[in-house]
Amino acid sequence: MADLKLYDVFDMSPLRDYIREHGECRVYCKGECFCRIGENAPDIGVVNSGGFAFVRPDYKGDDQTCSLAFADELVGSYISMMPGRKSGFDVKALCKSEVSALALDTVVEYMDTISPDYRLRFTYAIAYAFMMRGISYRCQSVESRYVELLERMPDVKSFMSTSAIASYLGVTRETLSRMRARMCK
């Protein structure tokens, strides 16, 4: 899932409210996975506190942070809504984090009660968010993506490593450090 909150194209509050009302409250320690790459992801959650990174190893085996979810955002591997599909990434807690989680099947059934096309619009929102995230990598400066991240989560540096932030921005740690130094001047 690609930073849905950034590219919110329709009202997901009924879904978030339903998951919070009917879901199970879970606490994850730093590094603990909500779902794992290559496995079925049986649940969808709403982050109540903390944050999660959507992580996948690159061709060298180094973890790359592809997406983030913070308070009031959804977590899970939505591709798993399709029969036989496995998660394409690990969803790891960045710090001690609390999530309201509900079975994916239950959430899909609920989506169909909201409106006949809700599931389609939800899928569109995810695809749109991934597309916009890809465009931001090609068309925005690293500085503007970093400022956007800080606006979204001002204290991100307190619970996300420099390596993970650099990975999310698509740069090296050194580039991130130099950029931060320039921005402080």
From TrEMBL:
It comes from Muribaculum intestinale. This is Uncharacterized protein.
